[in-house]
Every structure is written in structure tokens, then in C-alpha cells.
What does this fold into?
Amino acid sequence: FDPVTKICFVGAGYVGGPTAAVLAFSNPQIQVTVVDRDSSRISRWQSKHLPIHEPGLDDIVRVARDGTNATILARGSAKESVAFPERTPNLFFSTDCEQPIGEADIIFLSVNTPTKLVGVGAGAATNISIFESAMRSIAVVAKPGAIIVEKSTVPCRTAQVIRDILDIHRPGVPFEILSNPEFLAEGTAISDLLHPSRVLIGSSNTSSGLTAAARLALVYNAWVPEASILNVHLWSSELAKLVANAMLAQRISSINTVSAICEKTGADVSDIASAIGMDHRIGAKFLHAGLGFGGSCFKKDILSLSYLAESLDLPEVAAYWKSVVDINVWQCERLVKRVIKSLNGSLTGKKLAILGYAFKKDTSDTRESQSISVIEHLLRERPAEIAIYDPGCTPADICTELQALFGAAGSGIIAPEGPINVHADPYTACTGSSAVLILTDWDQFRYPPLSQADSSAAAVESYVHTALARLAQVQVLPEDWDLNAQQTLFRSQPQCNIECTKCNKAPGALKSYPGENLK
Ligand code: NAD
It folds into this structure.
């Protein structure tokens, strides 16, 4: 094959940025440019303060973008690290969408594909207009023979849309289209990209399609073993991504329905998860009950799958997948009802602290966060204050987002006029609260800085146990409860506080909690 020398990613988001960084890091001989029309995003990618918080991303970017030396953890090791020497930079970020696309051998489309909000299929179908528009720009400038890769998650048969656009703008010019969906999870994006369970490449079965797939496989081969690269048909690859997300989300909704049964029977949902997870046919992952799934992908991809089934005249299949989303909404409402009930049926005059605003730990991404739904529900009960803290989001970003979410009423809900107060530290957020809702499993909520714990290990353990029990039941905290002196509280249940039967059953047993790694 002709060697690949230049690659362009269109879309510098959560997928485009980290994927391009790892690809450039692993292929020093390839020049990788990420383009985006959002100039503020690009300038953050060019700066020291990247627009995305992902463990390990800074180091990878430092090596590939700046050519600086860095020490990076070795594969499968928590301790062993590998030193990377200085090298020639090969990762670039730009708002110029023409030249890097026009020169690229491979163009990855990694733009956003949200759920359609208006018109036919509103609320379920995927809105591919952003994807289409990016594709139209690519079609005009891409060099003949370039490989165009769908990295975004798209409905099955979207490659045909790309083909149609190319036929209109560049009739007769040879281009190959591949599907290469991304399976990374936010919060572990770099580790997932460096050690993927599989790389899926969808191509047409023609000899030029298979050649294009082999060229892309070679790029991945720089760090991914051949056995982990799977070549399938285009339609299968597109559909596999939707199904993968739907299956993962389905497990969360399934175990959450079981959590409701446990709460009424006295069974422990984490016992159930352990018991069934040891069956290798089921497996232990994604079986942690909690508040439910969030993030930009799961809901939109299940809805897209459900819509696809509906449009194929398979209403039963559509209803089955839609119910996964319905359970997720119900689980969130269940927590809110429990908070209200625990606080004697009224939130009037009470302060509630929310720890965790992003959709899961180790990310600053707040898209479709269940925390936001909880806040919306709680606001309707007119509490005196809702105090929010998240380790990954700045108060300014949270305030701006809430103002935008609440539209015209937005500025009125943020303090000093409104009830929402966003804090830069968890202790002030919790001081004086009637209840603390830990909605995201950030480690710092579980493992407080030990220097701030002021007692013997046994006393701390006993205090944490008591605090956990209180939190779990969302009970009113005692008036003399001094949060600043008792910061061990944050070593607590990582997800929502729906149930904490561990505390009831085994005092002091603080090793695992329901809801861990939930989303
Ligand atoms: P994102 O919103 O973070 O980033 C998309 C970027 O594309 C934005 O910065 C936007 O400005 C840019 N863009 C849009 N149109 C453009 C154009 N015409 N030219 C240049 N730039 C343009 O989205 P994301 O989270 O990175 O997701 C991208 C795709 O990957 C989606 O289809 C998503 O479903 C899929 N995906 C996301 C994840 C995830 O964890 N976020 C995981 C796997 C797959």
C-alpha cells in the first residue's frame, strides 16, 4: 500500500481529540491534524489547559503535540512506567478546515450526532445534519483516493449518505468509505484507546474497500495487535456500535430494576450483582445499581436503535429498547421521591448539597447527566438552597450551563437571586445541608484527604459508617454536625443514596458499595 503520511480528524471533541492524540502518539511518522470550526475549543487544544479532562491525556498530548518527553504507564500496569524521549511534534490542532482535509490520506469524521429535536423522529432519531454538513465540506476539498472514515456513531447505512454526497460533489472521483466506530468510555478514554478490546473496521466487500480497510488496520497496528482488529461489512459495523451501547445500558437498567425489588424485600442488590456476575456467561461489569446512566451516548444510541426498529416496522423490538431508557428516567425520579419523603415531604426552607454534577467520575462532561435531572426535580419542590460541587467542573462552567438549560428563567435560579449555589469546595457546599446527595462516584467522595481526618482509624471507621447510614437513608443531619471537622464523610457511598444495606448488615464493612462505577 501507499504509506499513510497525513491524517485529518474533523471534530475536536471528546472522541476526535483523544483518538487523534493516541493515533499520533503511536505513529510518529504520520502527521495528524484535528480541525474544528469551534475556535475556542481549538485554542484550548493548543494550550496547556486542554478542553477535556481525561486521565493520561495531558502526557500523550505533551509527547505528540509538543514533542516533550513524558513518562507514561506501561500496558496493564498501575506502577511500571515507560519514558518517552523528546521527538518531532506530529499532532496539530487547527480551525483551518480546508488544507488539512485536502492533504489527508485518511479523514476521520468525528463530529457530534445528537438526537433529532424537531420534525419526523424528534426525540428518537439521530440528527445527522451536522455530520452531513461536515461531509459536504470534506467532499469539496478531499484529495482523490482519500479514505473517509465514519468515527462518529451514526445510524445503520449512513455510509450510503456519504456516498451520495460524494457522487453529487465529486462525481467519478474515487473515494473509499469506512466505518470505524469508537468504543472508548469517558473517564478512561486514554486507557481504552491505548488498549482497546477491539478495533472495528467496516468496509464494502469490493477489493478497493478491503484495501482501504487494510490501510486503516495498518495505522492501528502500530499499537493494536492484529488479532484485536475486526473487519466486517459497513452496515454491521455501524449497527454494532449502537447495539454495544444499548446492551451496556440495558444491563444498568436491568440491575436498577432489581435494586427496586431489593429495597422492598431486604435483599442486597450488591450481593445479587456479585452472585450473578461470577457466572462467566453474565460477567461482573455494568452490574452496579445506582442512579442510572448518563452521558452523551447511551440514551441517544438506544433511542436511535429503537427508532431504527420502528422504521423497519418492528414495533415490539422498538418498545423493548425504549424501555431501557424509561427505566433510567424512573430510577432518577425514585431517588428524588426518596429524598423528599426522607425530609418529611417538603424541601421548603431546606438546603440540599449535590456532590457530583458531571455524568460520571474522572470527566468534566455533563451531557445528559442524571445530576441535572435530579436538580430539575428538586427545584420544583422549592428548596431554600441547592449547593452543587463537582471536582471536574468549574463553578463558572456549571453556572453558565444551568443558565442556558433553564432558558429565560436561568439567571434567576443562580444565587444570589435564586436557590442554586455552585461551590468550588465540597465542604462549604455541604455545610448546613439537610441532606447530601452523592450522585457521582468520584474517588474523592470516597477517599478524603487523610490529613484532614482527625481521629484514630477505628473512630474514623465508625464515624464513616454512621455517616454512610445517614447518607444512604438521606436523613436530616444533626444540628451539631460539623462538616469541617468531620471530612471523612466524603468517604462514602459513591453513587446515589438509594440503599445502603451494607451498612445495615455489616457495620464497619466499607470495602464495596452499591453503585460503584455505575455509568
Ligand atoms: P463533541 O460534541 O464533543 O465534539 C464534536 C465536535 O465536532 C465539536 O467540537 C464541533 O464543534 C465539531 N464540529 C461539528 N461540525 C463540524 C464541522 N462541520 N467542521 C469541523 N468541526 C465540526 O462530540 P463527541 O462526544 O466527541 O462525539 C462525537 C461522535 O462520537 C458522536 O457521534 C458520538 O456519538 C460518538 N462517540 C462519543 C463517545 C463519547 O464518549 N463522547 C464515545 C464513542 C462515540
